[in-house]
Design a protein that fits this description.
The chain has 553 residues and is mostly helical. Helices cover 61% and strands 4% of the residues. The protein has 3 domains: 1-219, no CATH class; 222-457, no CATH class; 458-496 and 504-552, no CATH class. It has helices at residues 2-9, 13-16, 35-64, 74-88, 109-125, 141-177, 187-210, 213-216, 222-252, 254-264, 267-280, 282-294, 340-356, 364-387, 403-480, 506-514, and strands spanning 93-95, 98-100, 184-185, 299-300, 305-307, 310-312, 391-392, 399-400. β5 (305-307) and β6 form a beta hairpin. It is flat.
Amino acid sequence: MTALFDQLRTAPRNVLSRIPLPGLTGDDDDVRRPLPVSGMLAAAWTLGVGLAVLTTLTLVGWIAAPRGALGSGLPAVFRTASQLWLAAHHAGFAIPGGSVGLLPLGLTVLPAFLLYRAGMWMARDADLRLRLPARLPKNTPKEASNARRKAQLILIAQAGISLAAPYALLAGIIALVARNEITQPFLGEVLVSHLVLAFIAGSVAVARTIGPWRSMLRLLPERLRSVVVGTFAALMIMLVAGAVMVLGAVTVNFGQVGELSGILSPGFVGGLLLLLIQGLYLLNAVIWGMAYIAGPGFAVGTGTLVAPTGVQLGTVPSLPILGALPEAGPTSAWVMVVIAVPFLAGAVAGVLVVRISPSPSYEGAPLWGFACGLATGAVAGLLAALSGGPLGGTRLSAVGPEGWEVMLSVTLEVGVAAGIAAGLANWWLIFRGHNTTVTKAAARVGTATAPVRKAGVKIAKAAGSVASKVGFAESEELRKLPGHWLDATECDTQPIPVIRDDWEDEHASAAAESSPKAHRPEPPRPPRRDIVDETDDKGGHVIYVDPYAWDRD
């Protein structure tokens, strides 16, 4: 297959370049293959490898099984392998008296992995990195980011369609080849299932080629990203709880499972194939456990029910894994505790929705939490519908959970819990953010006004000290002066102040008073006589005589 790819790569570029591709211009056309051609080659490679693997397993089963179980000859083996390949994409088929839709979801892992690898090869072969827009609108950074995200999403969608379209057409051809007198695949389901699976796997692979896993979610808007993350978290919690229940039931009823395996007596090779089939159906059983936790439960035939409220069973198929089913009758009271798991998953999802994209209003957060519940319910209902289906006619026409019941239950349980949790988490973020902002602002204001407050205290203390001293000196001097200053003689006037050696700095005294030593009582000081009283303006003016004026004549 690798040699075939190398030969196709060295084919004449003038033939391959005739296939038009919108938006492909420049000098790089002669060094890269058009995207539709790469998608067609990747689809053919996936189908070839997948059919080769399933044909090998079918051939081993044909050799180990009794003659006539899988038909006669190698054409019957290939036809059976083709039907298994179609069933791996969850495409059912009709049989005499009914239809088969209960298909192993574990088998879908094989085509999904091959399609993912083919999508990565397609992205490298078509060199999709060079197709990203080199010129973005010269506007704000937000508009440029949105334009780049939109271009990347368009490129991913184009790549997914380039892989899915030829893949679905080739699968339709295989469905026509795989028809026989007993099994007839549903052509509509074949086309839709192959198209959807190839588109999803190819798109994820191309997105992974453009950037790392961490940046894949950034292609989505922030609000949609929060809902996707919350939905994924809620589903994972419920699926893990379902897996724990299934493994616990198998462990408890392991003896009965072994008895059913012994009754079948498939032999060594047949036992390995039987174990492989049960492993492929294990994912179906996990989804059934999720439906059990959600409340609706699941059925193993018409008129049966396995739910937390009670178990009603009849004759079940002889598949050993079904020996882990509980006994018929009412369930224990402690089993009802599992119904709390969807509410817990909803609470976690609501918190994640708010942490990724908080709502600016209190009323908006619960609505987005309930939207996460709606998405979770839709995906859970889809998984429930895919995990079940008919297994023939009459009694086994209803096996597995009902999709709409699981969707409704999960939507209400997860949606209500997610709405309440999102509202509380959003209120807490807004409340804490408001308090933090106020605290920081107060701290900044307090830090900025601290020096001013200290200086004001010092000035007030200094002014009070000086005012007390001045008032004391003024009172002493006024007591010495006559009743009116006009009545005073020259000898009774105060002398002109001069700076002496014992002059005391008022600022230094204020600083000393504000220091811790200021609390100590100071001895009384003699009154100051070198301060001129300028507050006396009783109807006149004061004339100061400069005794040194004669020296400046």
